[in-house]
Write a structure and sequence with these properties.
This protein is of the alpha/beta class. It folds into two domains: 4-251 and 458-481, Aldehyde Dehydrogenase, Chain A, domain 1, CATH 3.40.605; 255-439, Aldehyde Dehydrogenase, Chain A, domain 2, CATH 3.40.309.10. It is 38% helix and 23% strand. It contains 15 helices and 25 strands. A seven-stranded mixed beta sheet has the order 15-16-17-14-13-19-20, sandwiched between helices. It has a six-stranded mixed beta sheet with strand order 10-9-8-11-12-23, sandwiched between helices. Helix 2 (64-80) packs antiparallel against helix 4 and helix 2 crosses helix 6.
């Protein structure tokens, strides 16, 4: 009998009140059901938020170093379970096994990093302008967080949110993607095994319309952290704005690699293959545009097409696989629709463009690595996030022209330039309007010790991950303390 995946509320695994279940399917084999998931209702959200609210006062008073030590235990358990969790990521989400293991490693890194923040959580101590008075700022928790996470990094992204939220003293209700509910459940089991008190971390399963929006609107929620599509994120921003509710939103990208005329082309091709087809293009930082200087355009196209044509498609658990399936049937159809739009707009399809149905792949959601060349920067396929194995190659006349093309979308997450000229790289890092810029590397590969996020419609609010301006700004608020021990009234800006 298949295991039922349940909600986790107030320290207990409980069935939802939504009636019935939904299935998590292996995208490499539609007949393989990874788990049967309980369906939640607003009643389950009410229970989870109530549990988080009741647990908040006690958890926020636990010394931050103790909260950090709990995250160290999470990291140790994740390390112990890495192989099995990585395989689960591959089975439920579809990415190849090295990437599935990398997904788990990112969660391990985040747990260790944020665990160490339990002994920092630093504010400022500054001199007062008045005698016998001191002044300082403190980070304090915000309260009860709604955490809404996507399917493409089913272990890493929930950990990116859970670790800073908990070390800062907040309590949470996690609503993961229904496509990767089993991965989220296994992660929560590890947090529970590490000793997270009842009510501090709660998990509810279901779709966005069924439970996600109700969770965001819930009067017991103090703040929201969302990662997902731009359309959904902007809708949630509207909701939170109307309720004067804090939200941190990480959304889409239409990332680009610039290849200059002096670039090492073989290195640039490797970066373009990894950026465009790693995770089957299902990353917010995927390199879906290549902006190539006209002097090397023909040579680059030839090398890139040759490399992409050698990618081996199949089940991500097989060592011979380079690229796995896309996540589900709606995404499969959406990507094929974009390919059709590219053809209609007049872009030149030079590789792929079709479902891949050879052998066992006929049972999954596979699409060939797809390359369009002679793409106009204003075409739909060059402006909208496809989130699949589709790459557009655009011709540029100069560095300035390339930067203009890269900046000419509503998104601003990640960009890259390949050049051997230090002056060109300096101009690019100054003028590219993206939150992340890579020099002689692909658009993917962010590390957790620096903030992660973008400009324009890519995101809103504080960024994810570590460093100054990172996740701790999302999960804490500032309190300023003035202490006057002079024994008399002193008036700032007035008394000298």
């Amino acid at each position: 009998m298949r295991e039922m995946i349940k909600n986790f509320i107030n320290g207990k695994w409980v069935a939802g009140h939504g009636g019935g279940t939904f299935k998590s399917i292996n995208p490499a084999n539609k007949t393989n059901v990874i788990g049967e998931i309980t369906r939640s209702s607003p009643k389950d959200i009410d229970m989870a938020v109530s549990a988080a609210r009741q647990a908040y006062e006690a958890w926020s008073q636990v010394p931050a170093p103790r909260r950090g030590e709990m995250l160290f235990r999470v990291a140790e358990l994740l390390t112990k379970e890495k192989k099995g969790l990585g395989q689960l990521v591959t089975r439920e989400m579809g990415k190849v096994l090295p990437e599935g293991l990398g997904d788990v490693q990112e969660a391990i890194d985040m747990a260790y990093y944020m665990g160490s923040e339990g002994r920092r959580l630093s504010g400022e101590t500054v001199p007062s302008e008045l005698p016998n008075k001191d002044a300082k700022s403190l980070r304090v928790p915000i309260g009860v967080f709604a955490l809404i996470t996507p399917w493409n990094f089913p272990i890493a992204i929930p950990a990116w949110k859970l670790c800073p939220a908990l070390v800062a003293g907040n309590t949470v209700v996690l609503k993961p993607s229904r496509d990767t509910a089993v991965c989220a459940t296994r992660l929560v089991e590890i947090f529970a095994a590490a000793g997270v008190p009842a009510g501090v971390l709660n998990l509810v399963h279901g779709s966005g319309p069924e439970v996600g929006e109700y969770l965001v609107r819930h009067p017991g929620i103090d703040a929201v952290s969302f990662t997902g599509s731009c359309d959904t994120g902007e809708h949630l921003e509207d909701l939170c704005g109307g309720m004067h509710r804090h939200i941190s939103a990480e959304m889409g990208g239409k990332n680009a690699i610039i290849v200059m005329d002096d670039a090492k082309l073989e290195l640039a091709v490797e970066g373009a293959i990894w950026g465009g087809f790693g995770t089957t293009g299902q990353r917010c930082t995927a390199a879906s545009r290549l902006v190539v200087h006209e002097a090397v355009y023909p040579r680059f196209i030839a090398l890139f097409k040759e490399a992409a044509s050698k990618l081996r498609i199949g089940n991500g658990l097989r060592k011979t696989t380079d690229m796995g399936p896309v996540i589900n049937e709606p995404q499969f159809k959406k990507i094929l629709d974009y390919i059709g739009a590219g053809k209609k707009e007049g872009a030149r399809l030079i590789l792929g463009g079709r479902p891949y149905t050879q052998g066992e792949c006929a049972r999954g959601f596979f699409i060939e690595p797809t390359i369009f060349m002679d793409v106009d920067p204003e075409m739909k396929i060059a402006q909208e996030e496809i989130f699949g194995p589709v790459v557009c190659v655009i011709r540029a006349k100069s560095l300035e022209d390339a930067i203009r093309i890269v900046n000419g979308t509503r998104y601003g997450l990640s960009s890259s330039i390949y050049t051997q000229d230090v002056n060109k790289s300096a101009i690019a890092e100054r003028d590219l309007d993206t939150g992340i810029v890579y020099i002689n590397a692909s658009t993917i590969g962010a590390e957790i010790q620096l903030p992660f996020g973008g400009t324009k419609h890519t995101g809103m609010g504080p960024r994810e991950a570590g460093g100054r301006g990172g996740a701790l700004d999302a999960y804490t608020k500032w309190k300023v303390i003035y202490r006057d021990f002079s024994g008399r009234l002193q008036r700032a800006q007035i008394d000298k």
